[in-house]
Design brief:
By secondary structure, the chain is largely without helices or strands. It is built from 11 helices and 22 strands. A 13-stranded parallel β-sheet has the order 1-2-3-4-5-6-7-8-9-10-11-12-13. It has a 9-stranded parallel β-sheet with strand order 14-15-16-17-18-19-20-21-22. Strand 7 (164-166), helix 3 (177-182) and strand 8 form a beta-alpha-beta unit. The radius of gyration is 30 Å and the shape is globular. The two termini are 46 Å apart. Pfam families: LRR_1, LRR_8. This is Plant intracellular Ras-group-related LRR protein 6.
Length: 583
C-alpha cells in the first residue's frame, strides 16, 4: 500500500479497484499528509483521480472532504448504502460513479458539487433524485438506470447542458414538457422499461437527438412534433401500445433504425415509406398487409415482419430475404411509380451506413464495388469497426491514419497488393485485422511489430508470398487464420503464441506437425485439414482437454486407424497421449 500511495502522490491518481477492500484505507483520506521517507511534501501532487470500484466497501467516511482537489471518483460495484454529506465539498469533481451499490438516497449536498459533468448512479435503490442536482449546471451525462425513480425533480430544468440521459428501468409515468423544453442539447435519451403512458407534445424540440429509446413502456401515441427531431438516427418504440403512427415520422430524414415491434399497429403509414431506413422491425403487430410503396425503401437491409396476420403476402416472402420482399412490393406499383424506385445509388448507401455508425460506431460498406476508401471512414473520428470487404480497393489512403479509435478493420476480398504498414502503425487500438483473399505480395519483415496489439489476424488466401511470415511481435494474438497461403511447414514462432485460441492452417502443403505444438496450451481450435500430413506427433495429445476441435480431414494419415479418427478430437488426442514414451 505504501508503494501505491507514494506513486499516487506523484501522479495524482490512485487505483485500488478489485482488491476485496471492506473499508477505504485511512491513508487514502490523508494521502498528502502521509509523505514517506525520501519524499518532499512540497513535491507531492493533490489526488485528482480515485478508483475504488469492484470492492466490498460499505462506508465512505466524511473524511472524503480532505480530497478537495478530486476530479474523478469511482466507487461503483461496492456495498454502499449511502454517501457522506462531504460529497458536496468536492467542488472540483467532474465525474462521479456510484453505480451498482445499494444506495437508497443521494444526499442533498451533492448539489454543491457544482463542477459535476458526469454522474452515474445506476443500479441502486433510488426512489428519487435530489432537487439540489439542479444546481449542477454543467451536468451533461446522467445515468440513473435500474432504480425505482417515479419522477424527475422540477429543478432539473436547470441542467440545460444535458446531452446524455439514461433513466431506463425505473417507474417513470410521465415526461415533463418543461424538462423537454430545457434539455434541447440532448443527443441520447433512454427512458425504456418504465411506465410512461405518452410523450410530451413538444418532444420535437429535441432537434439534436440522435438516439431515442422508449421501448417497453405503455405509450399509446407519438406526437406529430416528432418530425422536429431532425437528427434522429435510431428510434426504439417496441413493446408499447401504439395503434397508429403520425405521418410526420416520414420527416426524419436521417433515421436508419426504427423499432416498432410488439405494438398494435394495423398499418405502416405511406408517409413513412420515404424514410431511408436500414433496419425496420414491425414484428408482432396487427398488420394484415403492406402498402406497395414500402417497396421503394431500397436502403432497407432488414425488415422483420413475423407475428403479423398478413393475408396478402405469402409466408415465403414474409420470412425470406428482405430484398425479395421489396422487389415483390415494387412489382405491385404502377409502372410510373416502379421506375422511380430505382436501386439506391452507391452514395446513398454510404450515406445511410454513415448515419447508422453515429451511434453504433460501426461502419459496414461491404460489397459496394468500391475502388477507393470513402472519406466517411475517417471523418467521424469515432468509428471502432470498419467493414470494407468484397470491394476492389487496391490501397489504403493516408487519411485512414487519423482513425485512431479503430479497433477492427476488415479488408477481405479486395485487391490490396502491398502491406499497408505505415497506415496500420498509426492505429494504436487495432485488435482485429482481416486481409484474407487479397493479392498481397509479402508479409511484413518485422514480425508484425506495427500491429503488436492484434488479437485476431486473417491472412488466408494470399498465396503469392516470397517467404513465410514471422509472428514474433504478436503476443496478444488469440485467433490466427493462415489457410491457402502455400505453407510447407508450420512457422516456428507460432508455437510461442501462448494466448492463441484458434489456429487455422487449412489447405496448405504441410507434411508434418512440430512437436513444439505441445507448448500451445491455450489452443482450443486447430484446423490442419487438407494438407499432406501422414503422421501426428504424440506430443499433440498433451493439448487434451484444452483442445476442443481438431480438424484432420483431407490428409493422408496412416499412423491412426480410421475408427479412432471417426470418434473425434478427444479420442485422437487420448490415442496420441498413450503413445508418448514413458518418462
Amino acid at each position: 500500500m505504501d508503494r501505491i500511495l507514494k506513486a499516487a502522490r506523484t501522479s495524482g491518481s490512485l487505483n485500488l479497484s478489485n482488491r476485496s477492500l471492506k473499508d477505504v484505507p485511512t491513508e487514502v483520506y490523508q494521502c498528502l499528509e502521509a509523505t514517506g521517507e525520501g519524499e518532499n511534501w512540497w513535491e507531492a501532487v493533490d489526488l485528482q483521480k480515485l478508483i475504488l470500484a469492484h470492492n466490498d466497501i460499505e462506508v465512505l467516511r466524511e473524511d472524503l472532504k480532505n480530497l478537495a482537489c478530486l476530479v474523478v471518483l469511482n466507487v461503483s460495484h461496492n456495498k454502499l448504502s449511502e454517501l457522506p454529506a462531504a460529497i458536496g465539498e468536492l467542488t472540483a469533481m467532474k465525474s462521479l460513479d456510484v453505480s451498482f451499490n445499494s444506495i437508497s438516497e443521494l444526499p442533498e449536498q451533492i448539489g454543491s458539487a457544482i463542477s459535476l459533468v458526469k454522474l452515474d448512479c445506476s443500479s441502486n435503490r433510488l426512489k428519487e433524485l435530489p432537487e439540489s442536482l439542479g444546481r449542477c449546471l454543467d451536468l451533461s451525462d446522467l445515468k440513473a438506470s435500474n432504480n425505482q425513480i417515479s419522477s424527475l425533480s422540477e429543478d432539473m430544468v436547470n441542467c440545460s447542458k444535458l446531452s446524455k440521459l439514461d433513466v431506463e428501468g425505473n417507474k417513470l409515468t410521465v415526461l415533463s414538457e418543461k424538462h423537454i423544453a430545457s434539455w434541447t442539447m440532448l443527443t441520447e435519451f433512454n427512458a425504456s422499461k418504465n411506465m410512461l403512458g405518452g410523450l410530451p407534445p413538444n418532444i420535437g424540440s429535441l432537434s439534436r437527438l440522435i438516439r431515442l429509446d422508449l421501448h417497453q413502456n405503455k405509450i399509446s401515441s407519438v406526437p406529430p412534433s416528432i418530425g422536429g427531431c431532425s437528427s434522429l438516427v435510431e428510434f426504439y418504440m417496441g413493446m408499447n401500445s401504439l395503434s397508429t403512427l403520425p405521418a410526420e415520422i416520414g420527416d426524419l430524414s436521417r433515421l436508419g433504425t426504427l423499432d416498432l415491434r410488439s405494438n398494435q399497429l394495423k398499418e405502416y403509414p405511406v408517409g413513412a415509406c420515404k424514410l431511408k431506413l436500414s433496419y425496420l422491425d414491425l414484428s408482432n403487430n396487427s398488420l394484415t398487409g403492406l402498402h406497395p410503396d414500402l417497396g421503394n425503401m431500397t436502403t432497407l437491409r432488414k425488415l422483420v415482419l413475423v407475428g403479423n396476420p398478413l393475408r396478402t403476402l405469402r409466408s415465403t416472402l414474409v420470412n425470406g430475404p428482405t430484398a425479395a420482399l421489396l422487389k415483390y412490393l415494387r412489382s405491385r406499383l404502377s409502372n410510373s411509380e416502379e421506375t422511380s424506385a430505382s436501386t439506391p445509388t452507391k452514395e446513398n448507401v454510404i450515406a445511410s451506413a454513415a448515419r447508422m455508425s453515429i451511434s453504433s460506431k460501426e461502419l459496414s460498406l461491404e460489397g459496394l464495388n468500391l475502388s477507393t476508401v470513402p472519406s466517411e471512414v475517417w471523418e467521424s473520428g469515432e468509428i471502432t469497426k470498419v467493414n470494407l470487404s468484397k470491394n476492389s480497393i487496391e490501397e489504403l489512403p493516408a487519411q485512414l491514419s487519423s482513425s485512431v479509435s479503430l479497433q477492427s478493420l476488415i479488408l477481405s476480398r479486395n485487391k490490396i497488393k502491398d502491406w499497408p504498414g505505415a497506415i496500420l502503425k498509426s492505429l494504436p487500438n487495432l485488435v482485429c485485422l482481416k486481409l484474407d483473399n487479397n493479392p498481397l505480395k509479402q508479409f511484413p519483415l518485422d514480425g508484425f511489430q506495427a500491429v503488436s496489439g492484434l488479437q485476431i489476424l486473417d491472412l488466408s488466401g494470399n498465396a503469392a508470398f516470397r517467404e513465410p511470415p514471422t509472428f514474433c511481435h504478436l503476443p496478444q494474438l488469440q485467433e490466427l487464420y493462415l489457410s491457402r497461403i502455400q505453407l510447407s511447414e508450420v512457422p516456428e514462432d507460432i508455437l510461442n503464441l501462448s494466448n492463441l485460441l484458434i489456429l487455422d492452417l487449412n489447405q496448405n502443403s504441410l507434411q508434418s506437425v512440430p512437436k513444439g505444438i505441445k507448448n500451445m496450451t491455450s489452443l482450443k481450435h486447430l484446423d490442419i485439414s487438407n494438407n499432406n500430413i501422414s503422421s501426428l506427433p504424440p506430443e499433440l495429445g498433451l493439448l487434451e482437454p484444452t483442445l476442443e476441435v481438431l480438424r484432420l480431414d483431407g490428409n493422408p494419415l496412416r499412423s491412426i486407424r480410421r475408427p479412432i479418427l471417426e470418434r473425434g478430437t478427444k479420442a485422437v488426442l487420448n490415442y496420441l497421449k498413450d503413445r508418448l514414451p514413458d518418462q
